[in-house]
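Technical annex, item 7. During the second reporting period the consortium partners agreed on a shared format for inverse folding records so that results from different sites could be compared directly. Each record opens with the tokenized structure and is followed by the designed sequence. A conforming record, contributed by the partner at site C, is shown below for reference.
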């Protein structure tokens, strides 16, 4: 017996608000499976008015797999697999202030992320999302065929440069290769799998040769019709599908504090298209 939650779309390409689902309650496995299907179809979903404690956040995340945490992040006391994503009043740069997918320099990047608002600025601090499935669909057949034949090298070299500004001491990760087009494990839909933060070049191409095509894809992927924007409010929880969306944390609240709790869910081997 499934709960009768509803999903209201934010736009054609991406995003849905889920109503009628209390994240502090315990639900049947088929209810979580239904949430997983909506997430796979919409790329990002959000819930309003949730009074989730860290234990509720952790319990909800556990229904979707094992949590994974990066090496250089601050975790929430008592919850070693929950990250605190924060920006203090005197900090200028934020975490995630550029279009990216999380940790694609790992062989199996996290497939999902659940972010809970803990302290919000008076204005700003929205998070934008873009569907890489919609971005891929909108390309010509010729471009799709070219991209299906490519793989790309990912690494954390750009994160290393940014880490100095964020006062984090990050070590270089070995470079690795992912398909440029992947197939989603739940929907079977094809999706672009490159991002400006971690994709360094196409396999077998130089960075200079790769840049024009990657830049084209980065501009194309940011088209407003592939995007939705989450305007945070207290009690909001956002869940995104990291292998088929990019996200961008807007850094437009200087002098104010923003604190979020994040749980990332362990990924599986990516499926090439
Ligand atoms: C991130 O995971 O990139 C941060 C997202 C956010 O803080 O809105």
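Designed sequence (site C submission):
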């Amino acid at each position: 017996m499934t709960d009768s939650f509803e999903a209201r779309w934010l736009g054609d390409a991406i995003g849905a608000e889920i109503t009628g689902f209390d994240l502090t309650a315990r639900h049947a496995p088929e209810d979580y499976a239904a949430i997983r299907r909506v997430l796979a179809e919409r790329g990002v979903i959000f819930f309003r008015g949730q009074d989730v404690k860290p234990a509720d956040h952790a319990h909800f995340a556990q229904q979707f797999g094992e949590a994974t945490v990066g090496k250089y992040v601050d975790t929430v006391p008592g919850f070693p697999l929950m990250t605190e994503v924060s920006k203090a009043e005197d900090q200028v740069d934020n975490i995630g202030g550029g279009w990216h997918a999380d940790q694609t320099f790992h062989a199996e990047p996290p497939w999902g992320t659940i972010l809970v608002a803990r302290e919000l600025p008076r204005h700003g601090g929205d998070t934008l999302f873009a569907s890489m499935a919609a971005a891929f669909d909108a390309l010509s057949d010729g471009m799709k065929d070219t991209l299906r034949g490519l793989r790309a090298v990912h690494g954390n070299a750009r994160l290393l440069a940014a880490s100095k500004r964020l006062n984090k001491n990050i070590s270089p990760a070995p470079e690795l290769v992912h398909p440029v087009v992947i197939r989603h494990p739940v929907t079977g839909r094809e999706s672009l799998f490159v991002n400006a933060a971690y994709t360094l070049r196409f396999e077998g191409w130089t960075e200079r040769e790769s840049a024009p095509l990657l830049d084209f894809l980065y501009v194309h992927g940011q088209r407003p019709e592939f995007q939705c924007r989450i305007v945070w409010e207290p009690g909001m929880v956002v869940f995104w599908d990291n292998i088929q969306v990019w996200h961008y944390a807007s850094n437009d609240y200087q002098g104010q504090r923003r604190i979020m709790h994040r749980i990332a869910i362990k990924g599986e081997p990516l499926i090439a298209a």
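Helices lie at 29-42, 54-62, 132-137, 141-148, 157-165, 207-221. The domain at 6-265 is CATH 3.60.130.10 (Double-stranded beta-helix). All partners now use this format for quarterly exchanges.
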